[in-house]
Amino acid sequence: MNDMKRRIAKHLLSIQAVFFRPDEPFIWASGIKSPIYCDNRLTLSEPEIRNDIETGLRGLILENFPETEMLMGTSTAGIPHAAITAHLMGLPMGYVRSGNKDHGRKNRIEGKLTPGQKVVVVEDLISTGGSVIDVCETLREAGAEVLGIVCISTYRMKKSIEKLKTAGIKAVSLTDFDTLVEVAAEDGYISRDDIERLIAFRDNPADESWIGGSK
To answer: How far apart are CA 192 and CA 183, in angstroms?
Structure first.
């Protein structure tokens, strides 16, 4: 567990951009019950944390995708992080809408994208992976060479790992579910007894046997 992963995890927990509620799960739009809540948009309101995130994303890109020519944010949460990181790197940026506009030129991709351009997608969170893979496929269809994805955090669900592998997309993150769980236990946000339950959720969100497991 490297220092950056732990530092970002502490940041996210401290401002409740991420917090755990294993005994009173949240319900996703899909109906799946989840012990974790994540709203990385809150980081934008915290200058010190925001700076660590954007410089961290810049570092991930330089280390993993040094040939990057353009950053593309996911709509909407990835857009500000793509913009700030692109500014730090002196790179062009754009973003991909969740669907085509219903007016004007009816674009889905915003920004000037040249066919063959080497692009990295910037996302705030990868959970199941479906939406960010869709963004990558949209960019590929437009002629971009998608090098990969950088994100603030990922749940590292088996389903998302398998989807990304099948799509041939490399994804790297500043922190991840396992680090968040470990730091949360260390800092008293959750009990040590909760860790096994939370990892069970990560491995199979559809299996609700982890709920109430500590009682």
So the answer is: 10
CA–CA dist 174, 32 (Å, integer):
25
The answer for residues whose C-beta is within 8 angstroms of residue 89's C-beta and 6 or more apart is 58, 61, 62, 68, 71
Number of neighbouring beta carbons within 10 Å of residue 91? 17
Residues 61 and 85 sit within 8 Å (Cβ to Cβ): yes
Strand partners for 148: 120
Among the listed residues 191, 188, 182, the one whose alpha carbon sits nearest the alpha carbon of residue 6: 182
Local confidence pLDDT in tens for the 215 residues of the chain? 589 999 999 999 999 999 899 999 999 877 889 999 999 999 999 999 999 999 999 999 999 999 999 999 999 999 999 999 999 999 999 999 986 544 445 689 999 999 999 999 999 999 989 999 999 999 999 999 999 999 999 999 998 999 999 999 999 999 999 999 999 999 999 999 999 999 999 999 988 999 876 44
Structure token digits, residue 69 = 């020519």
The residues near 52 (Cβ < 8 Å, ≥ 6 apart) are 7, 8, 11
Q: Is the peptide bond before 85 cis (omega within 30 degrees of 0)?
A: no
On whether the CB atoms of residues 77 and 96 are closer than 8 A, the answer is: no
Question: Where would I find the H helices in 37-129?
Answer: 47-64, 78-89
For residue 40, CA distances in Å to 43, 151, 174 come to 6, 10, 12
β-partners of residue 33 are 27
